[in-house]
Specification:
ribonucleoprotein; alpha+beta; 34% helix; membrane; single chain; 14 strands; four-stranded antiparallel beta sheet; transmembrane; RNA binding; binds 2-acetamido-2-deoxy-beta-D-glucopyranose; Ribosomal_uS5
Length: 457
């Protein structure tokens, strides 16, 4: 019985002790009676024999000064970071931290000058000798450092950082990232997959905690006319990406290309509120379009094209509209068959010399052509649509009176550069209608660098 003296006055203290004592006396009678019976039953000799033997007593000194000393480290960590099985199923503790190694920077003896402290960081007795306190030898230091390094290598989980060339269109966003072929199957050799759109959403539910969803638009293609795309949503990013990749590989579409580098002809197509105007371009022009269309072109194998989007920029609408347009393309023979007329090309490069590209088997004559029929090829393939070209706004200074003065001063030199280029291209020199008559009449070298050139030569 422990009684604090500070609280109780002397009188009460004595009283309690006397009370305890009488209580004990009363109990002793019973205990002696019980022992008497026990000894009677048991063999006295065996008990006395055992008591006289040597006993090994292990002493363990513990001072449970506070709550923290009473509990082991693992118990304390468990109370902070553990989640029950039922909680785990509901998604609790997904973001809980892991147990930290609090010894990490405060190991006895391993400071700036490592020192052996027998009993703390090494054994006291090694073989027959007792160890003394001393600094580490060089070899021991090296061993210790190597040990730490191997420990760090094992313990640190590496963040999988993307190689700069494998990143998408912009920053760390998944859009435009490459994923490799849909499967390692031999039939998907040469295929590549791109992420076109990725949206992560999370919803707080009453019994499942925060649930994550991920929505992906993925396109796969072999750059030789075969391509497939799919929109898929799932819970985890990684698994959804893989599922989408496989699914896109199962929905392949074949697209015809002109000379394996561009679209068959210009076209207009629309899906939802998204309108796309696509134009053919010569080889080497490159892809001049929205990044989503550019990636689609890469998958299909188109290298030269111009495209303009009007209306909504919704990614899935863009992809659908583009593919609808690609699939609705017609070859020249098909167009000619529909129209019953020759298809004739006149290019500026060829001096507008008419070249027949395709001819139908039966040609209509002029009496059969109605005056309202569209005969312009571009107008026909574009379905009568014309992309909206934004008006270029004139700069503010064109409204000032000084602008008129400037124009008046510049009038003599107006279009001079273009004329020089044209003359050089056509006649090989800057000349005029008077050159034949007066060959000595040459234009003055009024430009600085022209003059310098003349002096040096
Ligand atoms: C200290 O705590 C340990 C572990 O809970 C316990 O076994 C031991 O009896 C306690 N010691 C004292 C003096 O209370
Ligand atoms: C931390 O150091 C103490 C005392 O040296 C040791 O009992 C304990 O096991 C160590 N904990 C870890 C996680 O290494
Ligand atoms: C992701 O989807 C949600 C719901 O459909 C939408 O509100 C949000 O704007 C989308 N985020 C992006 C970046 O597209
Ligand atoms: C794009 O439009 C479709 C419907 O056509 C819609 O389901 C989707 O959420 C839209 N995407 C965005 C990013 O707004």
């Amino acid at each position: 019985m422990v009684v604090s003296r500070k609280i109780f006055s002397k009188n009460i203290f004595y009283k309690t002790i006397i009370h305890d004592y009488t209580f004990c006396l009363y109990n002793l009678k019973k205990i002696f009676l019980f022992l008497y019976i026990v000894l009677f039953v048991l063999d006295l000799k065996t008990i006395s024999g055992n008591l006289l033997l040597l006993q090994n007593v292990s002493l363990k000194s513990t001072r449970n000064a506070s709550f923290l000393n009473k509990r082991s480290a693992s118990e304390l960590w468990k109370s902070v970071i553990s989640v029950s099985n039922a909680g785990k199923r509901r998604g609790r503790g997904r973001t809980a931290s892991k147990a930290k190694d609090l010894n990490k920077t405060q190991k006895i003896g391993f400071g700036k000058i490592p020192i052996i402290f027998p009993g703390f960081n090494s054994n006291i007795i090694l073989g027959d000798t007792t160890l003394q306190q001393r600094p580490f030898t060089e070899q021991e230091k090296l061993n210790y450092i190597q040990e730490q390094e191997t420990k760090n290598l094992i313990s640190t989980t590496k963040r999988n950082k993307l190689h700069p060339l494998l990143r998408g269109w912009s920053g760390g966003q998944p859009g435009g990232r490459r994923l490799g072929p849909p499967s390692s199957d031999e039939s998907f050799k040469g295929f590549e997959t791109w992420i076109l759109y990725c949206n992560h959403t999370s919803i707080m539910t009453s019994n499942m905690g925060r649930t994550k969803r991920c929505r992906l638009l993925v396109i796969t293609g072999n750059r030789k006319g075969l391509a497939g795309f799919v929109m898929l949503s799932g819970s985890e990013f990684k698994s959804t990406v893989n599922a989408a990749k496989v699914k896109a590989g199962q929905r392949l579409i074949y697209v015809e290309r002109h000379n394996d580098h561009t679209v068959l002809h210009d076209f207009f197509s629309q899906f939802g509120n998204t309108k796309i105007f696509v134009e053919q371009r010569p080889k080497g022009h490159g892809l001049q379009c929205h990044r989503v269309i550019r990636t689609c072109c890469e998958a299909v194998g188109i290298t030269d094209l111009f495209a303009k989007i009007e209306g909504s920029n919704n990614v899935s609408s863009i992809v659908k509209a583009f593919f609808i347009g690609l699939l609705q393309q017609k070859t020249y023979d098909q167009i000619v068959k529909e129209k019953g007329l020759h298809l004739v090309e006149m290019r500026k490069e060829n001096n507008y010399f008419p070249t027949v590209l395709a001819s139908p088997t039966v040609v209509r004559d002029s009496s059969e052509i109605s005056p309202t029929e569209t005969l312009d090829f571009k107008n026909y393939v574009m379905n009568g649509r014309i992309p909206l070209r934004k008006k270029v706004r004139l700069p503010f200074y064109t409204k000032l009176p000084s602008w008129l003065i400037h124009l008046r001063k510049q009038e003599r030199h107006r279009d001079q550069d273009k004329v020089i280029i044209r003359l050089r291209a056509e006649y090989g020199d800057i000349c005029s209608f008077l050159t034949e008559k007066y060959p000595e009449a040459r234009p003055s070298k009024w430009r600085k660098h022209d003059k310098k050139k003349e002096e040096t030569t």
